[in-house]
TrEMBL record:
Belongs to the multicopper oxidase family. It comes from the Eukaryota. Residues 31-132, 145-280, 361-456 form the Plastocyanin-like domain. Coiled coil: none annotated. One of its GO terms (molecular function) is oxidoreductase activity. This is L-ascorbate oxidase. The keyword Glycoprotein applies. It comes from Populus alba x Populus x berolinensis. Keywords: Glycoprotein. InterPro entries: Cu-oxidase-like_N, Cu-oxidase_2nd, Cu-oxidase_C, Cu-oxidase_fam, Cupredoxin.
Length: 457
């Protein structure tokens, strides 16, 4: 395909906008993206377990802006989470200093804008948490470490997408898939060496399949859990999730395609990057390895093969106790069902019939100062019941040290990602149809993974 690299560069609203895109030569695309420190994706944050992070965020956009630290546990400082309810969005031309600790965590994480569909315009980046010296990780230190932020992409601006939802339309099908903001990244390594690939889905709506031509991948880490090291030809990474794999460059000296393609839709969007052998003189060629032909069922079968490596040392989610999670009796069961209703002509998304609206007074402040009338803990049911969806500042109560059994019920037609912000949880079972208590006999109570985002079909 004839290629033209085009640069859209402008200085609207005080922030610089920049995008390189591979397009057929007879049309040129330029669009706004959100940069962090002049970069898209934003700068990678390389930190170490238990680091104390002090991060000052200046908002130069013309809208309020808020970043969230995806998978960073904030049990003791949830007002640093960067989501509505715990943080106020940062007004234009203002700054906010986040302070948090990467307590007992090792692994691959991301940050992204949590409000106003800003994520559709960029503003995201990787957070890689490395082990402290002397803390063994359950695999040899790789010869190199690549971070790949993969995601669907819309040519429509985030403000137009906002207007779609406000006019009652759903998000459209995306226009493409990007790897690190591009459609032509290259990752170089030496033949015979082993590299870590940290892959995160930073997109808006679409599950992606990731694979490397001619190479298999050894799964070693999922959102901070060290896994049983199974070998895969391809991996599904759902929106918001991260995985880390080891890849040995054990093929002939040429270049190979790295592929991210959309899942679960008849129409498949594909993008490639290149794995370059340093001794290669041959560009990547040949057919791309096919996307898995299986649908939801096969994808969920793959998810069931993810197991926690119980003998691996390294950071534990909770060294004090809940490691033996299967022996702890849950305090209560919560069933959360997602739906996509129209309310007052707008496309909204709801949980147990409630579509969340942000209160003017942040929930944390209302709670801390006992301000009445901001929220009520009776505003959402702990399991779904029939009836129309409505708007409310929904808050559910739980007690300190409660151990919860949470069932996610997807009443929509497409794959959904559920994320518990500031926490992780054991994914002990997947199932079809409605959950009932008999499903407990199918739970994995021994070596399930802890993660912060789970796919639900
Ligand atoms: C950052 O915000 C604080 C108020 O929260 C303000 O006092 C300070 O001047 C700001 N810093 C800069 C460099 O604008
Ligand atoms: C689990 O971790 C241990 C300790 O590092 C390692 O020796 C072992 O190979 C891992 N087991 C599996 C099945 O991946």
């Amino acid at each position: 395909m004839p290629l033209l690299l085009c640069y859209g560069l402008c200085d609207n609203f005080g922030f610089r906008v920049f995008l390189k895109w591979k397009v057929p030569c007879f049309w040129v695309l330029s669009m706004q993206v959100i940069l962090i420190n002049g970069q898209f994706p934003g700068p990678r944050l390389d930190v170490v377990t238990n680091d104390n992070i002090i991060l000052n965020l200046f908002n130069k956009l013309d809208q309020p802006f808020l970043l969230t630290w995806n998978g960073i546990k904030q049990r003791k400082n949830s007002w640093q989470d960067g989501v509505l309810g715990t943080n106020c969005p940062i007004p234009p031309n203002s700054n906010y200093t986040y302070k948090f600790q990467t307590k007992d965590q090792i692994g691959s994480f991301t940050y992204f804008p949590s409000t106003l569909l800003h994520r559709a315009a960029g503003g995201y980046g990787a957070i890689n948490i490395y082990e402290r010296p002397r803390i063994p990780i359950p695999f040899p230190v790789p010869d190199g470490d690549f971070t790949l932020l993969i995601g669907d992409w819309y040519k429509t601006s985030h403000k137009t997408l906002q207007a779609y939802l406000d006019s009652g339309r759903a998000l459209p099908f995306p226009d493409g898939v990007l790897i690190n903001g591009q459609t032509y990244s290259t990752f170089s390594g030496d033949q015979g060496k082993t590299y870590m690939f940290r892959i995160s889905n930073v997109g808006m709506s679409t599950s992606l399949n990731f694979r490397i031509q001619g190479h298999s991948m050894k799964l070693v880490e999922v959102e901070g859990s060290h896994t049983v090291q199974n070998i895969y030809d391809s991996l599904d990474v759902h929106v918001g999730q991260s995985v880390a794999v080891l890849v040995t460059l054990n093929q002939g000296p040429k270049d190979y395609y790295i592929i991210a393609s959309t899942r679960f839709n008849r129409k498949i969007l594909t993008t490639t990057a290149v794995l370059h052998y340093s001794n290669s003189r041959t560009p990547a060629s040949g057919p791309l390895p096919a996307a898995p032909s299986y649908g939801y069922h096969g994808s969920m079968m793959q998810a069931r093969t993810y197991k926690w490596n119980l003998t691996a040392s390294a950071a534990r989610p909770n060294p004090q106790g809940s490691y033996h999670y299967g022996k702890i009796t849950p305090t209560k069961t919560i069933v959360l069902a997602n739906s996509a209703p129209l309310i007052n002509g707008k496309q909204r998304y709801a949980v147990n019939r409630v579509s969340y609206i942000n209160s003017d007074t942040p929930l944390k402040l209302a709670d801390y100062f006992g301000i009445p009338g901001v929220f009520s803990v009776d505003s959402i049911e702990s399991s779904p019941s029939g009836g129309a969806a409505f708007l409310s500042t929904s808050v559910m109560s739980a007690n300190l040290h409660d151990f919860l059994e949470i069932v996610f019920q997807n009443d929509e037609k497409t794959m959904q990602s559920w994320h518990l912000d500031g926490y992780d949880f054991w994914v002990i079972g997947y199932g079809n149809g409605l959950w009932n208590s008999a499903k407990r006999s199918t739970y994995n109570l021994v070596d399930a993974l802890t993660r912060h985002t789970v796919q639900v079909k």
